[in-house]
Amino acid sequence: MSQRTRNGVSRRDALRIGAVGLTGWTMAGLLEAAEKAPAAGGAAADRVLFLNLAGGPSHLDTLDMKPDGPSETKGEFQPIASKLPGVVVCEHLPKLAATLDQYTLVRGISHTTGDHPQGQAYIASGNRPSPAIKHPALGSIVKKEKPGDPDLPAFVAIPQTEWNAGYLGDAYAAFKTNATPKPGQPFSVRGITLPQGLTLEKVKRREALLKDVDRAFRDLDQPSSLLDALDAFQQQAYSIITSERTRQAFDVAAEPESIRDQFGGDELNQSLLLGVRLLEFGVPFVTVTNQGWDTHLDNFTGHKRLLAPLDAGLTAAVNVLREKGLLERTLVVVMGEFGRTPKINQNVGRDHFPRANWCLFAGGGSTPGALIGGTNAAGDAADDATDIHPDDVAATILNAVGIDHHKEYFTRTGRPAILVPDGKPLY
Questions:
Q1: Is 95 exposed, middle or buried (0-12, 13-18, 19+ CB in 10 A)?
Q2: Which of 29, 93, 100, 225 could form a disulfide with 84 if both were Cys (CB 3.0 to 4.6 A apart)?
Q3: CB–CB of 163/116 below 8 Å?
Q4: HEC readout, 166-220
């Protein structure tokens, strides 16, 4: 297990550097290895899969259990050992427990934003929500900076998302599937699948007519972010709907049976199957939103229902990305907007608790077996050595795909805005 400092140098790396003479490495050998490694500050990944556990999973009932904590905070779930030495996880996550050494686990993430829309806006952008400015979601930033193939939407949300493009404008909003695949059935996505009776030839004729109308009225248009967005949507819609490659990307039925069989038939697993396929075709940023984690009532029944699909789906997604040779190029991120209260309420539920949360990273430059941060013995706050916030998670994601999180943009009103001013990459 590798503990990493905030400047990204691991204890393992430090020992390796100090042991050159003992291991037979020469300075020339070290320089050759460094030359083959990704350059500092360069992109470790070129795509992101963000699994959003919307509603906020209970940290104490998942990946930050406190078996020796106060009796009033203990729940029904039992801890089991994981492959990450010294870390126990919930009994309903056996597959994740057996592979946790393949992930970077971050614990003790804290903030003070305790409602869902603001919490989601915070993890989406890495900026504490403010009435003065609407910050763009990470997917929108990637869409602007790393747009990828014009035939494919650069930011896909399965099935939907609350994340928005903020001051970048709606042209950089997510493409929402508004549906999830179902095993054994064709997957139809509005805007990609041609309606019955509509041919590609008809689409091309309509596009040509629309361009003629645009040329006729172009001089009458005034500068408008809405018009810019509509123009961008029109161009992308035409590229997408006339692209055979795009239709193939969304066709999960074309996946080999050996791949499809690794995913369950539930919505989360099928969404992750689609997400992995889109990443393989080159979509730079995919979010999969998994609803239901807001367990104010009957927390343990709710979590038990949700944990099994999460355990199976996440494990399958990481395995399949590895099988396809994509894991090293794909940063997988898993988190919700906050944790849940240590104290169990009168409805056998847990309430919103932004003071303690966790995040998982896999692939894309993350460090397998790393444990970053932690919470105190009661699980009600970060420990004394931990100072991690959603800003840092966002900075880590942008850094992984080679985007400077301190890059400055200007809003429509000319106000300067830094992408994630207060974030520091975690590794």
A1: middle
A2: 100
A3: no
A4: HHHCHHHCCEECCCCCCCCCCCCCECCECCCCCCHHHHHHHHHHHHHHHHHHHHH
SS3 411: coil
Take residue 215 and report the two structure tokens written for it: 């040329």
- Longest CA–CA span in the chain (Å) reads 76
Which is higher by pLDDT, 216 or 186? 186
Predicted pLDDT at 243: 77
- For CA atoms 311, 314, 317, 321, give the dihedral sign: negative
Asked whether 277 and 260 are in contact (CB, 8 A), the reply is: no
- Ramachandran angles phi, psi of 176, nearest 5°: -100, 130
Instruction: Classify residue 128 by its DSSP letter.
Output: -
Q: Note the pTM of the prediction, 2 decimals.
A: 0.83
Q: What angle do CA 286, 288, 294 make, to 5 degrees?
A: 145
Among candidate residues 107, 99, 67, the one with its CA nearest the CA of residue 83: 99
Tokens of 3: 């503990």
Tell me the domains of the chain and their CATH numbers.
42-189+250-418 (3.40.720.10)
What digits encode the pLDDT tens for the residues 51-82? 999 999 999 999 999 999 888 999 999 999 99
The pLDDT value recorded for residue 3 is: 45
Q: How confident is the model at residue 244 (pLDDT cuts 50, 70, 90)?
A: confident
For the chain, give the number of residues: 427
* Measured distance CA(360)–CA(107) in Å, rounded: 9
Quote the tokens at residue 184.
């054994």
